[in-house]
Amino acid sequence: MGKKKTAFVCSDCGAEFARWQGQCSECKAWNTITEFRVPSVKAAPRGGTMAGYAGVVEAKVQTLDEVNLESLPRFSTGFKEFDRVLGGGVVPGSAILIGGEPGAGKSTLLLQTMCLLAESMSTLYVTGEESLQQVAMRAKRLGLPTNKLRTLAETNVESICQLALREKPAIMVIDSIQVMHMSDVQSAPGSVSQVRESAAYLTRFAKQNQVAIIMVGHVTKDGSLAGPKVLEHCIDCSILLEGSSDSRFRTLRGNKNRFGAVNELGVFAMTGQGLKEVSNPSAIFLNRGEEQTPGSLVMVIWEGTRPLLVEVQALVDYSQLANPRRVTVGLEQNRLAMLLAVLHRHGGLQVADQDVFVNVVGGVKVSETSADLALIAALVSSFKNHALERQMVVFGEVGLGGEIRPVPSGQERLREAAKHGFKRAIVPIANKPKDAIEGMEVVAVASLSDALEALF
Predict the structure, then answer these.
(1) Position 54 in a domain
(2) Where are the residues of the annotated region Lon-protease-like (predicted)?
């Protein structure tokens, strides 16, 4: 019997090393390198083929036009918002990873999805964290049909795949990947090596048998997926279910998708009957008070393949501190500092002795640059204690020279705003529509000074 091989892997970046060391030389993280045993692989006989050994399947070389795409049609999950994030539905043979905070609703969403899909296809729900009685109790509480959903309580990956070969499901849920283990790997479930090898084994099984597999993953304190970085590399689609405990709304955001757009957003509402999809997310993020207050403004951002109207709020107040505070929720703090410098240089507004607080209502996280002009408008509105028009939207990127730069999909943003009853829009001059939009006045600006004049 040959000696078992060992390897040392960084849990942050997935880099491999021949021996243990305190710091990862790739990502520079400390104490993230752990040892795991490499599973033994049965070698092929001398002079023979590799077929039938170590799961190796003989393949043939093809040109792309010879590949048959008709045999892999997408199928719907039963939720339009879920399908949107996946890129139009579930692709057979794909490996999907869903992460989220405890209590966000990952298991609830997948249980609802599997019960709906069980009415029309073969499904298998594998639970490793709960008993079958607990799963059945939750399904009964949610009022879901349970007579066709096949369930299994198991944590051994090889046993799960052997049973799946007999059941032949079209889609299978693994809840969760952190409690799964393989017999050849000696470390405990949840370790870097177990998560890595279990996910790789399940992904190979999905590709070879055209079974769509959805794996549930835990998240770390900073909100990223737990486990080795290679876990995100081997799967096809990575999704995060986000939502605060004081809000009943949940957002499903795609971080990686080989079959659709990245950063697509789906919105759900948590109710007593489980998660309900929200078909018009802009309506819930625009639930404002009757009285318009200074520092509040609506902007149009682009999430995935659709526009989204959200409210941005700013509060500028005199600071008693030597170093005034700069606090952002839902926006990048470094970008706020840059925009304050642009506002001082090209807008003539000095806020060095002011505390600045910025918040995007509804818990939406904005990463695109189209929020620049709206953020500056909200800051000036709060500083001057001057309320802006209630039926006005603003979007545009602000450059370091004070110029207002265009953003993608300008006309779609304006149409979405007009659909919700907004009458006026401040946009970059390059985004001015050729044809007038019914019921909306569009003001095009080329510089920050032009924008401030149009706003105030």
Answers:
(1) no
(2) 355-456
